[in-house]
């Protein structure tokens, strides 16, 4: 089984950390390939960044089907950029880490809070929660005063801020689980959970394990209607590649 993790930004440190994390949790026989697109934003911290990242994501999905014999895809950004468009490009499973994390969190506790990065992403995260139908389970979205790149440049300080918000979520929100709202936090999930003492869900790990299950169950993206292939006259963004 081959799973491709697409980091929609171009910061290689994040991609390398995702590769290391996935290798540590994937079962024997699962090969994980973590990549960044050739071009795109260094981090995704707003709608503009997210829009810039989507063409690169779609190109990596097309390449995975065309050249790399990929069985499933993980979009490793908490905004799940280009998720629905990516599902049109392949009949393989495509999972966003926010969607995967919400589902996993709802199965380990009655409610959860999300701890994410800068305050400007609150509205984006609210949209995700609503789109995926988790308004009742999500108690609160907690932002932290940091940039996404702080997780690569000053990880100790950044994770200390995340842990402080997690503790407030337990005390004030009565959260029974925490969802980490950024792929840059993925490598620190276990440490954060040890510090706060309740389940902490990282969407990258959740998505990798769900991909393994879906491939085992021979489940792919339905092509019956909504995620049917794009119109034949369209080309994949990037290099005018054929779609199917």
From TrEMBL:
Gene3D superfamilies given in the database record: 3.40.50.12500
Reaction it catalyzes: a D-5-monosubstituted hydantoin = a L-5-monosubstituted hydantoin; D-5-isobutylhydantoin = L-5-isobutylhydantoin; D-5-benzylhydantoin = L-5-benzylhydantoin
InterPro entries given in the database record: Asp/Glu/hydantoin_racemase (IPR015942), Asp/Glu_race (IPR001920), Hydantoin_racemase-like (IPR052186), Iso_Racemase_Enz_sf (IPR053714)
Species the sequence originates in: Oceanimonas baumannii
E.C. code: 5.1.99.5
Family designation: Belongs to the HyuE racemase family.
Source species, domain of life: Bacteria
Protein name: Hydantoin racemase
Gene Ontology MF term list: amino-acid racemase activity; hydantoin racemase activity
SUPFAM superfamilies: Aspartate/glutamate racemase (SSF53681)
